[in-house]
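pls read this protein:
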Amino acid sequence: MKPLRLSNTAFLLLLICLVLMTGCAKKEIESASPKKQQVALIMKSLANEFFKTMEDGAKAHHQNNVDTYDLDCNGIKDEQDVNRQIEIVNQMIAKKVDAIVIAPADSRALIPVCKKAISKGIVVINIDNKFDRDVLEQEGVQISFVGPNNRKGARLAGDYLASQLNQGDKVAILEGRPGAFNGNQRKLGFEDAMGAAEIEVVTSQSAYWEQKNAYDIATQIYTKFGNELKALLCANDNMALGAVQALRGKGIQIVGFDNISAIQTLIKEGKVLCTVDQHADKIAVNGIEYALEILKTGVKPDDRETMVNLVTAGDLK
């Protein structure tokens, strides 16, 4: 039998068919592969160790889930740069990410742009600083909050401080940025504890989360109240660092909130009484995991509370 010979035309047709079949098979394989989700993490100031820890936790989670999603981490210069945060959200909308996990610098100002993201089909998860409920209702939008109960955490620290003081003692509070829900809740938690112990809060002032501001305000408070002042409750550890510098050697108890490494050192040295751990390395991870769950299952968004713990010298031995 003579071997089958193909004409040049027949050979070219066969080759084209093989190429097309290979391409179709490749497309079938690609379509069968799950789509990688694009997740944007938008934080506040990365100059604050708390948010750097949050970012590190998110990046570690991503490294263990590189086949599931891509991560785009963003932060702002300082915690007052609200306009820059709004700009970043708009950039992520333009990039058509699948989800935005955001720790808003302001509990009200970021809601409209996040509503815009949701209207584009983007899942938005609120972490760290809770959006204002009234503004959410006004805007007619639901955004899930994943994070700790800040009032509960501050109450833990305030109660521990109260156990070291006497009824009628005078204390002061350094608040976070006005309009920040978490700052307001921490102030309320401190006040709850002081009220229950009948300890007087002589002043409560905002240091805008910043160490330098806290140094200046703590100095002014001490100048006014002197040795009558027994303690300063700070709504974050950055401000506690400033208070320690301002009140060094004055015998005034300092309370923080965030459990950053610099504060842990000062607690061990007896320069800070306590702080509150809201597990910064897990906060963004919790938000990312919830966003991925919603993208996968379409589950109706709802709030999820995460844990807070008091940290004292006894916990750091």
User: Anything to note?
Assistant: Confidence is low (pLDDT under 50) at residues 24-32.
